[in-house]
Amino acid sequence: MTMPFDDDARFADYAHPQRIVGTKWLERHLGSEDLVVVESDEDVLLYEVGHIPSAVKIDWHLDLNDPVTRDYIDGEAFARLMSAKGITRDTTIVVYGDKSNWWAAYAMWVFTLFGHEDVRLLDGGRALWQAEGRAMTRAVESREPTDYPVVDRDDSVERAYLPAVLDFLGGQLVDVRSEPEYTGERTHMPDYPQEGALRGGHIPGAVSVPWAKAANDDGTFRSRAELEQIYLTEQGLDPSEPVVAYCRIGERSAHSWFALKHLLGFEDVRNYDGSWTEWGNLVRVPIVKGAEPGEVAR
Amino acid sequence: MSEQQPNGRSLPPALAQVVEDFNDLEIPDRLQLLLEFSDGLPPLPQRYAEHPELLEPVPECQSPIFLHVEVEGDDGDAVVHLYFSAPPEAPTTRGFAGILHEGLDGLSAAEVLAVPMDFTDHLGLGEAVSMLRLRGMAAMLFRIKRQVQEKMAG
């Protein structure tokens, strides 16, 4: 860990406060050679419209996904990407983005699969930085390529594949999609394309905690006490037991993965990135419709 | 560059020019051109800005966009005008709208209806913004054509 942590009192109660920084901290440390700021958005052109000075762009679709297989890039491609962005293995990465940091959390999660040690999220993301009137630029700085090592991706800890989810039925599954997606009324987000899944509903036993419950209106994360109220008190989730989170393609659940793992300190949180676009298209997997988690057939 | 003409059918000249301009550029520069279209999307005229309910949403786009088509006349020679509204935090969608405005605004209804639905595949934007995101522009074209047909019939 090369950069100091953000010791803002707002973050002190979180389980891993070293994983989050505020806009003030970032503004103060911009330009540090140990720091690379990464913007990761849903809208592929937003970075070009203006970004935090010195930030580099990483696009979830064009940079992090394998162009052929439905999978993430491999260790060699990741090393090339990091090198091109001027990131070394020791660099502190701060990720931010649009949509309350969905895609930033998703990028952070992928970086975690490659074991990049020091990755942090900018609380409030792009919208808060802008709302506070902090500097934005269209200038793109060229960066010296680095010698980033080729590291094999390790999916065993943070990522859940379909067979693991089937074995996990009866465990703590968290569905972070919107309510109409959970009940099966829709197979997509409100106002998003009706596409991607042949069946609607949720995985049996999954509790519904829409991702946005973890966020305040300004896109920052809720306090630890508020998050405990939502996930522990209301849903009865046990932080010492494994959790699998899912959504439609794994981006909104990366946001919840961050909240559960780094803010609440759940020990074993995996993101099921196949999510509903996989489960909702599979032949003969069990599905529950309606507002209740439903029974898991034994 | 005849190999870039979709289905061998010719595009209206303004739209053909846009397709050619994109394909003449290296991939990173195509994103810059899309940004120019995004920046250059004309604002809504007052009569629509004050009545957003007159605009049709395009839910196939990942970001909020609304469009409205005016058709002057009731036959194939009727002149088509396009109006779009999309927020600045959705620049890709604004860029798509800007391309359609540049390529189609002021054409006849028959010309708009004859635009091949797959012209969006020929902009060379697949590698720059991903094919997934380009689906949003095809959906906008679909809705424009439908409004043109409805307004000619009405």
TrEMBL record, chain A:
Domain Rhodanese: 31-138, 172-288
Record CDD domains: TST_Repeat_1 (cd01448), TST_Repeat_2 (cd01449)
Gene3D superfamilies: Rhodanese-like domain
Domain of life: Bacteria
Catalyzed reaction equations: thiosulfate + hydrogen cyanide = thiocyanate + sulfite + 2 H(+)
Keyword Transferase found: yes
One GO MF term: thiosulfate-cyanide sulfurtransferase activity
InterPro entries in the cross-refs: Rhodanese-like_dom (IPR001763), Rhodanese-like_dom_sf (IPR036873), Thiosulfate_sulfurtransferase (IPR051126), Thiosulphate_STrfase_CS (IPR001307)
Alphabetical list of PROSITE patterns matching this protein: RHODANESE_2, RHODANESE_3
UniProt KW keywords: Repeat, Transferase
Protein name: Sulfurtransferase
Origin organism lineage: Bacteria, Bacillati, Actinomycetota, Actinomycetes, Propionibacteriales
